[in-house]
Amino acid sequence: MHTTHRICHNPVTCGVIGVVTEADDVFTDLRPLLFAVAYDLLGSSTDADDVLQDCYLRWRTRPATEIEDPRAYLVSAVSRTALNHLRAARRRRESYVGNWLPEPIRTDEDASRDTILAESISFAMLLVLETLSPVERVVFVLHEVFDYPHADIAAMVEKSEPAVRQIAHRAREHVRARRPRFEVDHDRRDLVADFLHAAHTGDVGALLSLLDPDVVQISDGGGQVAASRHPIVGAERVARFSMGLARTSMADARVRIDSFNGAPAAVFSLDDTVDSVAVFEIAGHRITHFYAIRNPDKLTTVDRRRRLTRQRSTSWRQ
Question: Which of 19, 190, 222, 258 shows the smallest number of beta carbons within 10 Å?
């Protein structure tokens, strides 16, 4: 791949010397797809970035004549590397303190426009994917979300095509049995604003009108900061918990309403430092899930807006 004379200042998309090559341009063009694959497989933006960096460094040194299809090559490389990361992460998560939640990613509008992509990166779906084995997760995500053929996936996971078909069927049934109700975020930020206002003013009636009767609130502090180690279930309990936070630890917080993981979210900052991100999942006109991420290790890149894309539509949600 020939070298141009443009200067690059991003080490993830250019070489150490800072000169942009054709390989850099290809990788940059494919980055939204590659990040979407890695994040869907790992549920961690930090790990996904590490996977992309590792694959980029290997990609940049490969002769152009060896690669006929850059997209196929890079998706395969990302999937293989992510599978290794996923296996290691599963072992670490066995000793995780409290509830484990995915790292929140700040998403652009495209993530919400694509229903399948939006559902695949939703917190509820990522938690379902956590219940699959690493290989099942790779097979499911690549085939059902990104529409990769079983034969291509078989080469990536080093299994026969018939075996991959069986894994895909098992994973699909597993996910369908556990998949929560999902609705694309058609800009529900006003509902989140109403929820935050009601919590701040102590309006129990307003809170109960905004919460699903079976709403679930889950917090993740990773053992580093204060956070409930057990899910809180039910509208009244979640309402009182939210009012308590608004009166105490979050009383002086600065709040920004944004979009994370294709859903409306609130970013709470104390002393110009992000303290937590709350991601809301909504069905109808009520909040069904409320995820609060407080683990500081999971908040290091929340100000970075992520672009994600996939290849083409699939029918796995039918």
Answer: 190
